[in-house]
Design goal:
GO terms for molecular function: transmembrane transporter activity. This protein is of the alpha+beta class. The protein has 13 helices and 14 strands. It folds into two domains: 193 residues, no CATH class; 211 residues, no CATH class. Strands 1, 3, 4, 5, 6, 7, 8, 9, 10, 11, 13 and 14 form a twelve-stranded mixed β-sheet that branches. Strands 2-12 form a two-stranded antiparallel ribbon.
């Protein structure tokens, strides 16, 4: 330990490494490049992860969306191929029978992909998707209310014909600067009063413009105005934190099958999109990407470590006479070994830290360039590494330095003083 803090020791290390500075610089570059590649790969993976996950921002990822399909098996005298519809009673049955569910939101819809339903205001007409919803849907899908308010339970209980429109609907049906809140739009011949506007991001790589071309009205008013009765088009089901909707959805399907006389083994009768399952796959993908980044980075670093080990072997060869003299003057094998190991670790850490600083500078420039860019619709955002990665990199450097110096150190202590003194 005293030797570690000895001024003479560090003087010898600096003298040994600077005696052939060009060779030392080339050797150090291998480690610098390895750490640089490792940090950049990890940061790039993090940037990609941030970009993808911001698409889920505000969305209850522990959710699934389910809809009715065609029964594929006969059951209780009913033929296969028959169609059925969810009912509002199914919602209460699911809430009462399946534990750990946070939201079960029934939904109805007019229009299809990219809008197919005429909405009229004065002389202007547009084709937009219209949804009949409950207030909980805003907690299941990301949406920013830009003016007014969203649906509440007073609207639901009173069957109020009110609507929340997207910013693109506002642009299409209203003049610039025209007051929107309190105005009326006509959906399939039925008047609805606008009580709010919203803006939201597109999901899963969709068109951001299309995400604003939607209209939300209370579920009860929708059913009444468009003669849907007790029918439910589809449902958004969210599990509580700590519970997986993927594990609970089979119970939900069993209730639907029992209530609509569907064969218990008919897996095609209920369609679903499991957002939590997709989100888990994305998390698994980024875990794999991090593994690949570490694997590739460490392989590149290993080539640098081999270079340092080779150079240290050459250094030991060049200093054979010096080592012999030190052994003859009473230096212990441990003192010789520690000297070589310290030189190896010092060179590895200095070059590795230079690689970390270089990579950090590159990342700072990239983040500075992205500050004035809207990344909300990009698949890449804020590439960075946390302090844990730096700590891991330092540990890798120390271990690498030890490994690089181990063989040269063992070679050094095998030098016999008499043989060394004969070497010219």
């Amino acid at each position: 330990m005293n030797r570690l803090f000895s001024k003479d020791t560090w003087g010898e290390i600096l003298e040994a490494l600077s005696s052939n500075w060009f060779r030392t610089l080339l050797t150090a570059f291998g480690v610098l490049w390895g750490i640089f590649i490792l940090v950049i790969l990890l940061a790039a993976g993090k940037g990609l992860e941030n970009g993808v996950k911001q698409g889920f921002d505000g969305m209850a990822t522990n959710s699934m969306f389910m809809w009715s399909q065609t029964a594929s098996k006969p059951y209780k005298g009913l033929p296969k191929g028959r169609r059925y519809n969810f009912k509002i009673g199914d919602v209460d049955a699911i809430k009462q029978s399946v534990p750990n569910l946070r939201f079960v939101s029934p939904r109805n819809q007019l229009g299809g992909f990219r809008g197919a339903n005429n909405v009229v205001r004065g002389l202007k007409t547009g084709a937009y998707n219209v949804y009949g919803d409950y207030p909980e849907i805003i907690q299941q899908q990301p949406m920013d209310i830009t003016s007014g308010r969203f649906i509440n339970y007073s609207d639901i209980n009173s069957n109020r014909k009110v609507a929340i429109i997207g910013e693109s609907v506002k642009t299409g049906l209203y003049e610039t600067g025209e007051e929107v809140i309190g105005s009326y739009i006509k959906i399939n011949g039925v008047n609805f009063m606008v009580i709010g506007t919203y803006k939201k991001k597109s999901q899963r790589g969709g068109d951001p413009e299309e995400a604003q071309k939607e209209i939300f009205v209370p579920f009860t008013a929708f059913s009444q105005a468009f003669n849907r009765g007790e029918e439910v088009g589809w449902m958004a089901v969210t599990a509580e934190d700590g519970s997986s909707i993927t594990n609970l959805k089979s119970q939900v399907f069993d209730i639907i099958k029992a209530r609509h006389s569907i064969h218990p083994e008919d897996d095609r009768a209920v369609g679903n999109f499991d957002l939590y399952e997709e989100y888990s796959k994305i998390n698994g993908l980024f875990t794999a990407l991090n593994f690949v980044a570490y694997f590739v980075g460490i392989l590149v670093l290993l080539s640098g470590i081999i270079g340092i080990s080779n150079i240290m072997l050459i250094v030991v060869k060049e200093r054979t006479k010096e080592i012999g003299i030190r052994r003859a003057l009473g230096a212990t094998p441990w003192e010789i070994r520690s000297q070589i190991l310290l030189e190896s670790i010092f060179l590895t850490i200095i070059s590795g830290m230079a690689g970390i600083v270089f990579a950090s500078g590159i990342l700072a420039v990239v983040n500075l360039a992205m500050e004035n860019v809207d990344t909300s619709e990009m698949m890449f955002a804020n590439p960075s590494v946390n302090i844990g990665v730096v700590v891991i990199a330092l540990i890798i450097l120390v271990v690498s330095g030890l490994l690089a110096g181990l063989i040269p150190a063992q070679t050094a202590i095998r030098v016999k003083p008499v043989d060394a003194l004969r070497t010219e």
